[in-house]
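Technical annex, item 7. During the second reporting period the consortium partners agreed on a shared format for inverse folding records so that results from different sites could be compared directly. Each record opens with the tokenized structure and is followed by the designed sequence. A conforming record, contributed by the partner at site C, is shown below for reference.
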């Protein structure tokens, strides 16, 4: 059982699920159908089976956020495909949101169709700020910066968006860290997404 099911029980879990759903809704997350080996113009999207035992929580957080916010609109159904690629690095309410059925209320990204037409991909660079964890902690918090760039078919790129998150990870029984909470703190548009 995950350690996030303490004080507050299901009410806390419900609140976490609502916050995550709202944050992902703002970022355009949508329906399930995971796939992993897509690439365009030599820029590979993240691949792999899941977090490694005894890897640091920072490594798991970086990989999860990189997967969530890297997209290939020419082949991805929507930005939710990035979330689904991250499922092995997620747990709890965040994993539930990532694997849920299609939700027609989720707002599509307005840039998606143009990216698809132009064969652009969106890549995410992630910087996780470590905090001083106590030895033996099974839940840890981090601050993460995610920068998204639009990579064009001609090899050029356009900075698009910078997001700041507070995230929480738990160390599961398989000795792997998985992210179960991500709160969007701030988002800044860096340039045109076209």
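Designed sequence (site C submission):
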């Amino acid at each position: 059982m995950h350690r996030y099911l303490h004080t507050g029980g299901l009410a806390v879990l419900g609140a976490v699920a609502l916050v995550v759903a709202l944050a992902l809704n703002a970022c355009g997350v949508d329906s399930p159908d995971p796939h992993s080996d897509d690439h365009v113009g030599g820029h590979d999207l993240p691949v792999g089976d899941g977090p490694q035992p005894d890897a640091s929580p920072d490594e798991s957080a970086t990989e999860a956020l990189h997967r969530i916010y890297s997209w290939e609109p020419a082949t991805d159904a929507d930005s939710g495909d990035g979330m689904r690629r991250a499922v092995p690095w997620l747990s709890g309410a965040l994993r539930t949101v990532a694997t849920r059925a299609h939700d027609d209320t989720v707002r599509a990204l307005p840039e998606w169709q143009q990216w698809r037409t132009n064969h652009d991909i969106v890549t995410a660079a992630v910087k996780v700020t470590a905090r001083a964890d106590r030895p033996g902690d099974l839940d840890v918090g981090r601050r993460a910066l995610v920068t998204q760039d639009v990579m064009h078919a001609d090899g050029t790129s356009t900075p698009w968006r910078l997001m700041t998150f507070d995230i929480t990870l738990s160390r599961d029984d398989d000795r792997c860290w998985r992210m179960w909470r991500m709160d969007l703190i701030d988002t800044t548009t860096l340039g045109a997404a076209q």
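The first helix runs from residue 9 to 26. The chain has a mean pLDDT of 77. All partners now use this format for quarterly exchanges.
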